[in-house]
Amino acid sequence: MAARISIPKTAKIGEVIEIKTLIGHPMESGFRRDALGNAIPRDILKEFKCIYDGETVFRAELFPAISANPFMTFHTVATVSGDIEFVWTDQEGVEIRETVSIEVS
């Protein structure tokens, strides 16, 4: 699964920044059937978190009705330079993690 993350590389302290994320994931509900009539097994992401300076600044609970390749846009305030961590957790508890750095002045 590939994730794409868009954040500014730099920001002024106190500036509101926009964060966009997209992760490649089928988000299969478990209700659909294949060409032979067999149920396609459920495969969904259950949670998304954005962690900045050790604090969760955005969290979303995901459900089977969410489309494939979930895209999210949200805002936070630039406070310190460092890493912003993104964590997607699937129904089995497996985590997909990505980290992006920001320089705050």
What does the model show?
This protein has 105 residues and is mainly beta. The chain has one domain: Immunoglobulin-like (Sandwich). The chain contains no helices and 8 strands. Strands 2-8-7-4-5 form a 5-stranded mixed sheet, with no helix packed on it. A hairpin with a 4-residue loop joins strand 7 and strand 8. It is elongated, with a radius of gyration of 16 Å. The model has no long low-confidence stretch (mean pLDDT 95).
With strands numbered from the N-terminus, the spatial order across the biggest sheet is: 2-8-7-4-5
Per DSSP E runs of 2 or more residues, the count of β-strands stands at 8
Mean pLDDT: 95
Mind telling me the C-alpha Rg? 16 Å
Domain module count: 1
Q: Roughly how many Å apart are the termini? A: 33 Å
Instruction: Determine the CATH topology.
Output: Immunoglobulin-like
Q: For the record, what CATH class applies? A: Mainly Beta
Low-confidence stretches: none
CATH homologous superfamily descriptor = Immunoglobulins
Return the string of H and E elements.
EEEEEEEE
**What structural class is derived from the secondary structure elements?**
mainly beta
Shape: elongated
- Give the proportion of residues in helices: under 10%
